[in-house]
Design brief:
Elements lengths: L1 H10 L6 H45 L1 H9 L6 E4 L2 E4 L6 H9 L2 E3 L2 E6 L2 E14 L14 E15 L2 E16 L4
Antiparallel strand pairs: 1-2, 3-4, 4-5, 5-6, 6-7
Helix pairs in contact: 2-4
């Protein structure tokens, strides 16, 4: 019965549906603003994750010269010959430097920050790089493990809705890269 009443209000010519139309329009605008802000946050997070992935791939590629000796023997550990033994030789690279270059970041107060005009767009901190070297002369040299780089970084993006600042979106982004010889 209630749906019939709303239908009658919308069909009437008396102007009583005007407040209902305004309320529905404002509700749709608020929903659209919320959806567009969440899409903006997802786009920023995806772009930063892609840049971190690119930087970690570059770090793994920088370790290529360290894995040459292992590749000859059929595995991709980062070792260099030393006298009568091999020593682990890992290059952690400059991931922040690559991110600064890729994303146009500025370093301020321990953060790497991106600005859009005068407003901060996002900031990065807490970079953690873990290089997992393949064991020297593994029992099964099938390269299933390989030289693996695992990177975690904290991303903070300011959130605003309706002209008000809300707590920032803070997430830990994770990216991995693995070096495996092709042939």
């Amino acid at each position: 019965m209630k749906i019939g009443r709303i239908y009658d209000i919308l069909r009437s010519k008396g102007g009583s549906s005007f407040p209902l139309v305004v309320a529905v329009t404002l509700s749709l605008v608020i929903v659209f603003c919320g959806i567009s802000e969440s899409i903006r946050l997802m786009i920023v997070a995806q772009g930063v994750r892609d840049a971190v992935q690119s930087a970690v791939i570059s770090t793994i590629n920088d370790n290529y010269d360290n894995v040459y000796h292992g590749v000859r023997e059929g595995y991709s550990g980062a070792y260099q010959p030393s006298a009568s033994d091999f020593q682990e030789n890992l290059d952690y690279g400059d991931i922040y430097g690559r991110l600064d270059q890729l994303l146009g970041l500025r370093q301020e107060n321990g953060y790497h920050m991106k600005y859009a005009g005068d407003e901060m767009e996002f900031r990065l901190s807490g970079l953690s790089v873990d290089l997992d070297n393949m064991p020297l002369a593994p029992a099964s040299p099938d390269n299933s493990k390989g030289l693996l780089a695992d990177v975690v970084i904290r991303l903070e993006v300011p959130v605003s809705f309706g002209g008000n600042s809300l707590p920032p979106m803070t997430i830990n982004l994770r990216a991995q890269a693995k070096y495996m010889p092709i042939f």
